[in-house]
Amino acid sequence: MLVTFNTLPLAVGVLLSCSTTLGEVSVYGRLTLGTAWALTQLLVLVGGTWWYESRAASSCEPAPATTAASRSVGGTW
After folding, report:
1. Among the listed residues 7, 23, 25, 27, the one whose alpha carbon sits nearest the alpha carbon of residue 15
2. Is the dihedral of CA 54, 56, 60, 64 positive or negative?
3. Average pLDDT in the 37-54 region?
4. Which among 46, 58, 63, 69 would be 20 to 30 A from 26, CA to CA?
5. How far is residue 53's CA from residue 70's CA, in Å, rounded to a whole number?
6. For 33-48, what is the HEC assignment?
C-alpha cells in the first residue's frame, strides 16, 4: 500500500525534474512548482509511512488465543 500511495507523487516529481521550465513556474512569491511539489512529496511519504507504521503496530498485538493465560503451562505451540 505504501508503494502505491507514493507512486503518483514520485512520477510527477520525475516529470518535473525532466522539465526545468515547468519546475521553475512560480506558485507563490519565490516558491516554485518544483519546490512545492518536493515538499508535497515529502509530506505524502512521511504521512504514508506514519500511517503504515501505526497499522503495522496495531496488527502485531497477539490474538486472544495466544496470550500466556490461555496457553497451558509447559504446553506446545
Report:
1. 23
2. positive
3. 87
4. 46
5. 28
6. HHHHHHHHHHHHHHHH
Half-sphere exposure of 40 (CA within 13 A, CB side): 15
32 forms beta bridges with 26
- Full DSSP string of 11-74: HHHHHHHH-HHHHT-EEETTEEHHHHHHHHHHHHHHHHHHHHHHHHHHHTSPPGGGSTTTSPTT
Placement of cell 506446545 in the chain: 76
Q: Which pLDDT value is given to residue 1?
A: 64
- Reported as a single tens digit per residue, the pLDDT across 4-34 is 767 877 787 788 778 778 878 888 899 988 8
Joined together, the cell numbers standing for residue 58 give 496495531
